[in-house]
Amino acid sequence: MPIPTEVLQKIRRIQITTAKKASDSFAGEYKSVFKGRGMEFVEVREYLPGDDIRSIDWNVTARMGRPFIKKFVEERELTVMLLLDVSRSSCFGTVNRLKRDLATEVCAVMGAAATKNNDKVGLIVFTDRIECFLPARKGTNHVFRVIREALYHKAEGHGTDIAGCIQYLNRLITKSAVVFLISDFYEENLKKPLSVASKKHDIVAVQITDPRDFDMPNVGVVKLDDAETGKSYFLDTSNPTLRREYKRKAEEKEETQKKLFYSIGMDRVVIDTAEPYEDALIQFFRKRQMRMMK
Q1: Are 144 and 185 within one domain?
Q2: In which element (H, E) is residue 120 found?
Q3: For 108-117, what is the mean pLDDT?
Q4: DSSP states of 143-208 as a string?
Q5: Which residue from 82, 96, 161, 280 has the least number of CB within 10 angstroms?
Q6: Cα–chain center distance at 213
Q7: Is the dihedral of CA 145, 148, 152, 157 positive or negative?
Q8: Are 61 and 111 within one domain?
């Protein structure tokens, strides 16, 4: 089925916008905090004043009768995997955009930053099942396809199975990768699968939130539908006790998740539909860089 023209135009707009943001803001920050797999030997060359004497190749030096050093460069190429939750709870947003639209832009800007640094980018779209897999590849055309799938994929599942997605990733990607797990994290019992995956991959939890996740507005009696289970509820939002309890549970859930990621040693970025995502990502990059320098 061909993609409608307006969708293609939207994908192209996202690609152009996020590529510019990656060039202006994120590419350098991204490169500084996601390192290559190690150092790769390039050549042996004659020693020059100022070279580190620890790099001297003593075997070649003895043969040639003058000092030579081994030259290494960082093995830069990374595999970046974007794990995108498109369960029904992502089709929610009360301020500037839906959670899914915001998550798509995050996928696009991280894909653009990786591409600018000549890294490979792959995508796993999931709900309570694996919906789509794009193997990691390089190039702007591939990033366009990543954006297209992130934005346009019609999900079959309703719920969320992050643990299943992580297990799928571990089976599929044998070498270490940088993984951005983008979700609103409406799931429990994640410690074991995330702990196992974190030993192999550098996983960053990107949590997409909306102001209404934490604050219930006073709008009288309303019918609420649980997007993932299909259950409906009638609530009297004018009840202050109900609104306080809603906020308390949301904050308790937030604190539990924060402790979970900290205990595993995973980085976490919270991006809200009401705020510019650029600020949250740049703050994350800079905090991570400062931590690496200690």
Answers
A1: yes
A2: strand 120-126
A3: 89
A4: HHHHHHHHHH------S--HHHHHHHHHHH--S--EEEEEE-------HHHHHHHHTTSEEEEEEE
A5: 96
A6: 21
A7: positive
A8: no
Q: Token digits for 180?
A: 């951005």
Domain that holds residue 87: 5-33+77-293
Domain count, the chain: 2
Burial 87-104 (b: 16+ CB within 10 A, else e): bbbbebbeeebbbbbbbb
The closest of 193, 9, 29, 198 to 109, measured between CA atoms, is 29
143 and 228 co-located in one domain: yes
Which of helix, strand or coil describes residue 121?
strand
- Nearest to residue 146, comparing CAs of 123, 167, 169? 123
Both tokens of 251, joined, read: 């904050």
Q: Assess contact for 201 and 169: CB atoms under 8 A.
A: yes
pLDDT tens digits along 50-106: 888 888 999 999 999 999 998 875 556 789 999 999 999 898 888 888 999 999 999
Q: Are 69 and 42 part of one and the same domain? A: yes
* Torsion angle (degrees, nearest 10) of CA 167, 101, 135, 227: 40
Instruction: Identify whether residues 28 and 44 lie together within a single domain.
Output: no
